[in-house]
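Minimal example, chain plus 2'-deoxycytidine-5'-monophosphate.
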Amino acid sequence: MKHSAAAAPEPGAAPDGAPVIAIDGPTASGKGEIARRVAARLGWHYLDSGALYRVTALAALRAGIALDDEEALARLARELPVTFAGARIELGGQDVSAEIRRQEVGSAASQVATIGAVREALGGLQRSFRRPPGLVADGRDMATVLFPDAHLKVFLTASLECRAERRHKQLIEKGFSANIPSLLQELSERDARDSNRALAPLRSAQGALVIDSTQMTIEKVLESIVQEHHRRNG
Ligand code: DC
């Protein structure tokens, strides 16, 4: 996690916290890359909330814990030895930044994320990222549950085909094997699970800026968000 010097609170800041830009969206919508770049541009902290669910899932897979064992998974999430050092994510001191990006881990993350006690255990950790001068947080429920007072809420999406192609490119670049038909199936299953679960389902928050990035470059999306941020802060 990046630690920046404290700055004067911005106009959009909540009285009890630093300002937040919440970016939610379905898997492979590009929200991680966009959120990281918005944070870098503003000099704010960055939270990849999905990484916490992924690390929990990886720890469960390694420990042989069944993905429906709510009690054991909640305990695991409460005691998760996770550390963020810039872009590097460690589990028990071991760099797992690449491993948590595997499709199998993403799918397991989506399953453990349906458990209330797991979400509760990871909630405090996510809120602790909110510090001056501000936080850019990406996930599924950043605007709806974790930071409902975020001064800018963005719902970033793209067509299923476009997201499958982007994820394919990402996985191949990281040296993992992947193919488009199985990605299409995997992403649509994940969309359904993340959107239809009872707790903190993926939803566009009221008042969110909705961006469909199917036909947009990353730079264009980045500019729209930064411009909207500046517009709201005069
Ligand atoms: O954003 P991602 O693909 O890295 O997230 C992995 C899974 O974690 C996702 O399928 C659902 C879950 N998740 C969640 O439930 N809430 C969040 N805020 C972030 C991720």
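Residues 27, 49-50, 53-54, 106, 109-110, 113, 139-141, 190, 194 surround 2'-deoxycytidine-5'-monophosphate (CB under 6 Å). The first strand starts at residue 20 and ends at 24.
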